[in-house]
Amino acid sequence: MLELRHLRTLIALRDAGSLVEAAERVHLTQSALSHQIKDLEERLDGPLFVRKSRPVEFTRVGERLLALAEHILPQVRMAERDLARLTGDEQGRLHMAIECHSCFQWLMPTIDHFRDHWQEVEVDIPSGHNFDPLPALAREQLDLVITADPQPLAGIHYEPLFRYEGLLAVAKQHQLAGNAFVTPRELADETLIAYPVEHTRLDVFTQFLDPAGVAPREIRTAELTIMMMQLVASGRGVCALPNWALTEYLERDYVRALPLGEDGVWSTLFAAIREEQRELPWMEDFLRTARETSFAVLDGIKPA
């Protein structure tokens, strides 16, 4: 019998492009996912996609099921929202802070989509306040904080959204541009361009430079990602950013990007919320929408 999980698996396989990444998205092992697909193919008496094709090439049977999934799953999601609103408290406040300068690329469409379905919830990103977001969350001044730097605070739950890789952006003519990766020592003579935040909140320091006992020759700050890219492209420094934040500039051949170390530096982005709000229907829906939107608009991220 065809089940919703089968449809969700096919959507994940199409969007991820491989069994390995699709399995991560639906929170299964690759073996379990393969077994699920094989079982479905046996029931349908035919393959769903061409093996070893990348991106995945679906058969006519697979394409028909994908069309069904695209029609059915949004309706199921809408019904789930309606039921949550009927059985729960529709009213609420979602004031949030973002400890991530490049998060707006996925956060703004998330907020727009959420507002369309939860008009009774007041959504805002307050500005002009001088406070640490996470303690402010504990004091109920905020309701959600996007952070990659969780702190042990009583009553605060950290919901993982996705994992991302930090990359070093360099000018196309930079001496490191042809390297397979960069080592901490190679940054000792560089000007590192960073957002104007404490170094303890930047992965390039906490996970890469500090453990190696290396400091860049100079640190220069810039408020906006595009300003950082202009400085990098003109040879006035290098900068470390999440892989998704560099996608546009790499596609335009504006800069080059290198992994931080041979194995790369991966981090997890969290949504911090108060424990008592974890099971609120609209909060659960916001977190689910954030994950879905992230994977729809960002390249190179992985399930947390």
UniProtKB/TrEMBL annotation:
Main location: cytoplasm
A GO CC term assigned to this protein in UniProt: cytoplasm
Gene Ontology MF annotations: DNA-binding transcription factor activity; transcription cis-regulatory region binding
Residue ranges annotated for the HTH lysR-type domain, each copy included: 2-59
DNA-binding as UniProt keyword: yes
Record bears the keyword Nucleus: no
PROSITE patterns per UniProt: HTH_LYSR (PS50931)
UniProt keywords, alphabetically: Activator, Amino-acid biosynthesis, Cytoplasm, DNA-binding, Methionine biosynthesis, Repressor, Transcription, Transcription regulation
Compartment(s) of residence: Cytoplasm
Pfam families in UniProt: HTH_1, LysR_substrate
Gene Ontology biological-process entries: methionine biosynthetic process
Similarity comment: family membership: Belongs to the LysR transcriptional regulatory family.
Record-given protein name: HTH-type transcriptional regulator MetR
Organism: Modicisalibacter muralis
